[in-house]
Amino acid sequence: MGALKVVFALFAVITGLTGVLFYRIITPKPIPKFDESQYWGPGKQPDKLDDSIRAFTVQVPKEVLLDLKWRLDHLRPLVPPLEGIHHQYGFSTNLLKKVVDYWRTDYNWTERQVYFNQFPQYKTNIQGLDIHYLHVKPKNPGNKKVLPLLIIHGWPGSVREFYEIIPILTTAAKDRDFVFEVIAPHIPGYGFSQAASKPGLGANQIAVIMRNLMFRLGFKQFYCQGGDFGAIILQSLTVLYPENVLGYHTNMASIMTPLSYIKYILGSFCPSWLVKPEHQDRVFPLWDKFVYRIRETGYLHLQATKPDTIGVGATDSPAGLAAYILEKFVLGTNRNYLEKDAADLLQEKYSYASLVDNLMVYWITGSATTSFRLYAESFNRNQLAHGVLRNPLKVPTAIARFEYDFYVADGIISELFPNNLQLSDLEGGHFAAFERPETFANDLISAVQKFEEYNAKNPKK
């Protein structure tokens, strides 16, 4: 009888602990409150911050261009790849030489600067930082409803990614009763947006800055679109301020909760429970995907731990910057490119001009190091402890899964995206707005049409 009591007591304890653990796994953390006026600028916060909106034009000093030309002209000999190796060891120097030669001899900054300045752009100070953004209004909306859209890039991108889709989004079309007013900011520390002078500016805090930016522009409610780090920022914004977000479209849905990991493990034994048959190879076998993820996220660990160290090379050498950034374009465009002849690989999907445009945003602003820091400021114990991304989104959402991009399995979507109205499986990769602008824009437009219908039936209070 005594032994039975001990067994029963142990069973009760184990059951209780299991219940507590499961409760903690499935229960979202309380949504934190962040200081909406926290100052991130240099030195002591002034008594009054300038809240004006100032027109901005991209203008690069001649000495910056002459310095760049000198560095490209005096590139040291590149170490050739090993025999039979293409991009398995990193960005192939065979392809890098082609890109650098184009940058040095054919890329015309005078022409490209005109291209950069085709859209209205501005700066305004938010919480001590000058935030740069494109603000493109529809030219002839007629009687169409004008919808504000906040769209945010990621790393290693910039607002240059959106130049091809903006005309599509801001041009009225007969088959829809709305048109977009696009606000596309550079993340703080990227491109022409000022970097923080103080530690702690992670994705959650940037979400606050972006909300404040939209408020500054007069928008209390707006639509959002985000990919890569823009997705992390806007998913945070949507969790923190659901009353301000009318709908959220993403091409990188982040569902990294304890319960989702358990589902993936269980799904290994019955894949059809988690993912449709034609996509099972994008999720399973888990071990292969895990090894791939570890192998291809070395940059993330470096940027999350020692951003300033690797930033030196990317800031001092244009060739180093090109190799580091374009490596991500190779794999992010098509994972099969890893073992493909380097020849003119990237020109299958992009023009060299567009790729170098993006490199120039980092080079002329010297923002490589400060862009890397976003990883250190977001992927650390203090930031992750907030648990913002463990909370479900309370707004209508749409997920675009591109062929060679981050894949979220069907069976876990409802965990954080309970009101998902559109799930699209599309051709293309991580830089879809760059690579397939029409496909990207049309999917976003389709999603917002569904959002509008949803919001008409479920108006926000």
Could you please describe the fold and organization of this structure?
It is a single chain. The protein has 461 residues and is an alpha/beta fold. It has 18 helices and nine strands. Helix 11 runs antiparallel to helix 14 and helix 12 (318-333) packs across helix 13.
From the spread of the alpha carbons, the general shape counts as globular
Low-confidence stretches: 5-9, 11-25
Q: Tell me the Rg in angstroms.
A: 23 Å
> What is the straight-line distance between the termini?
61 Å
Largest sheet: 9 strands, mixed
DSSP E strands, number: 9
Assembly status: single chain
Strand content: 5-15%
Q: Give me the number of helical elements.
A: 18
Average the pLDDT over all residues and give the rounded result: 90
Q: Quickly give the structural class.
A: alpha/beta
Share of helical residues: 40-55%
What are the secondary-structure elements, in order, as H or E?
HEHHHEEEHEHEHEHHHHHHHHEHEHH
Question: What's the arrangement of strands in the largest beta sheet?
Answer: 1-2-3-5-4-6-7-8-9
Short description:
The chain is of the alpha/beta class. It is about 45% helix and about 15% strand.
